[in-house]
Amino acid sequence: MHFVLLLAILFSFAATGVAFLLCRKIRDWRLTALAVLILVLAFQQTYVLLAHRALPGTVQPTSSSWSRTWTELVASTMALLMVMVLSSILRERERSERDVKSNSELLSQILRYIPHSVFWKDRNFRFLGCNDNLARMLGFDRPEDLIGKSDFELPSIDPELARNYREADRDVIRAGHSFINLEEKISQADGTLMDAVTSKVPLRDEKGTVIGVLGIFFDITERKRAEQALRESQHLYHSLVESLPQCIFRRDRAGNYTFVNQRYCDLHLKAYDEIVGHTIHELYPAEISKRILDSDLGVFETGETFHTVRWLPTRSGKAIRVQVIKTPVRDEQDRTVEVQGVFWDITEQHHSEEKLRERDETLAHVTRLTTMGEMVAGIAHEINQPLYAIANFATASSRVLESDDGNTQNRLLEWNRKISQQANRAGDILRRLAAFTKKSPVQNTRVDLNHLVRESLELVGLDARRHHVKHQLKLVNDLPHVQADAIQIQQVLVNLLRNAYEATAHLSSPPHEVSVRSHVMQNNVQISVSDNGPGLPDQDVDKLFETFYTTKPDGMGMGLSIARTIVESHGGKIWTQANPDRGATFSFLLPIDSGDRRLGN
Question: Which residue did the predictor score with more confidence, 416 or 15?
């Protein structure tokens, strides 16, 4: 009896101790409730033993049915509650294990397919694990083959690199701090080195104690190559930009400079920082900066290259003539974000061209005088005819006045009218001669080429009659005007007409025909002079417009050369071609005046 009672008391104390241990070790309200139930049940069982097994010397209760009933009810209830709690705990544990397994599988999938290399080591710097990517890179078939090894035991890692890895790992473990995005070299199984960005963080247990190091790195070899290529490209671009004799700049839409080369700075007598980041208004007067910005905006809006030649003032006070080219700078979406420009000084070239132009004008004037010298006999005859008519009418008038018949007044009025006509005719001849031989600077005006053709035919009319030439005029009505120097273009027409007349002189019998045609060719006016002469040898066609080349026995070879210079200086073109039957056609075209509403009509 005493032994049984002692066992019950010991069991009660043991149950109480287990309950307290569960409460301290397991932080779960359900386990805590279970411990409390165990404690209550232990005391209840002790009570039952005391109630039914009285200690020696004590008096037994007369009736215990009520206590046994209560005890059995409490015991059943307690047992049921214990089962329910244990069942809940088991379900929760099963759910937690499933979650852990699912998370473990998810983590395994991430480590397997992530493009980075991941590893973790213990405090002795030996691998605890890694992902497949790192194992393959180091020449292992499975991540498990790497476990337990240090960097020094891997044949693909150079000892010097292994020491660097060891020092980095030691710093992480010792300091307990992370190292993020460190660039370093990583050895690979094939012996090559890979540029990588590595991050290492300390591994800690549940108490926060550092137990190892976790690392991750990814390959940046291609990025490093691209960066190196970019640096080399930038260096090459910088070298070219700084060595070129041109001024180079970049501006945004607001006119702010984003780049200039040193030559640009030297021209404006400013330092780089005094230009870049500042606006164009700080470099040029308002009128000039507005004109420049307008051309910039044209590049932004059209996306097309802009060309121009202009005078540009400098801070030295000297204006220079510059050739300017502007191009759009586009981003990845093909949007124009900046304008890049380059210009260079062509002042000397401009002066040389001016001198050359003056020489060409002088040569053209001399050629006109030469032409006039060749035509002087015919011109004298042209002038003599109206002068002879004037003299005859004047003599007749004198005789009529002397006779003084009744019809004197009417006849005198008629003859005076004819005298006036002949005088005007002589004046027109002299006016055309004066205009043709006059030396004056080039003056481009709006010119009607049909009218100029008729003027030229009048000027060479005697040559036409001397060669018995029959003209055919095919001039388009309402011909658009061109911007040209009328005297120079007339010189071209006179040269082509006289060449055509001379070509027909080789014909043994008439008709000697020369036709002049005008028509519109796109945005140009074309004039063609055709003859029915013997034509031109094929080998001569390409040389006809060369200086000093001539097919005439007494020619100088200057006429067509000067004609080409004149036409091309007007932005036009001159050429020749053989006619289908016989003879040749010389043609030239000039751009239509942009202000003419009949442009391209």
Answer: 416
Instruction: Give the distance, in angstroms, between the CA of residue 30 and the centroid of all CA atoms in the same chain.
Output: 71
The answer to whether 248 and 211 are in contact (CB under 8 A) is no
Model confidence pLDDT, tens digit, residues 181-205:
888 898 888 888 999 999 999 999 8
Residue 67 DSSP SS3: helix
Q: Report pLDDT for 504.
A: 84
Q: Residue 240: what pLDDT? A: 80
CA distance 315 to 338: 25
By 3-state DSSP, what share of the chain in percent is helix, strand and coil, each rounded to 5?
55, 20, 25
- Write the CA distances from 188 to 135, 193, 194, 222, 225, integer angstroms: 10, 6, 7, 15, 18
Least confident span in 201-205, 308-312, 543-547: 543-547
Instruction: With a cut of 80, say whether residue 366 has pLDDT above it.
Output: no
Sequence spans of domains, the chain: 2-108, 114-224, 244-340, 346-440, 442-601
Q: Which CATH number fits domain 114-224: 3.30.450.20, 3.40.50.1260, 3.40.190.10, 3.90.950.10?
A: 3.30.450.20
CA-CA-CA-CA dihedral for 175, 181, 182, 185, to nearest 10: 130
Does the domain made of 244-340 have the CATH classification 3.30.450.20? yes
User: Which CATH code is given to the segment(s) 442-601?
Assistant: 3.30.565.10
Nearest-angstrom CA–CA distance, 435 and 427: 12
Helix (H) or strand (E) holding 415, with range, is: helix 408-437
User: Nearest 5°: CA angle at 155, between 151 and 158?
Assistant: 65
* Whole-angstrom distance, CA of residue 4 vs CA of residue 46: 11
Neighbours of 583 (CB within 10 A): 21
The answer to whether 444 touches 518, Cβ cutoff 8 Å, is no
The least confident of 6-15, 259-268, 335-344, 465-474 is 6-15
| Inter-axis angle of helices 486-504 and 408-437, nearest 10 | 100
Helices (H), 53-127: 65-113
Contact 130, 146 (CB under 8 A): yes
> What is the third-level CATH fold of 346-440?
Helix Hairpins (1.10.287)
DSSP annotation string for 345-379: E-HHHHHHHHHHHHHHHHHHHHHHHHHHHHHHHHH
Name which residue leads in pLDDT, 467 or 346.
Answer: 346
Measured between its terminal Cα atoms, the distance across the chain in Å is: 135
Sign, Cα dihedral of 457, 461, 466, 470: positive
Q: Is-same-fold flag (114-224; 244-340)?
A: yes
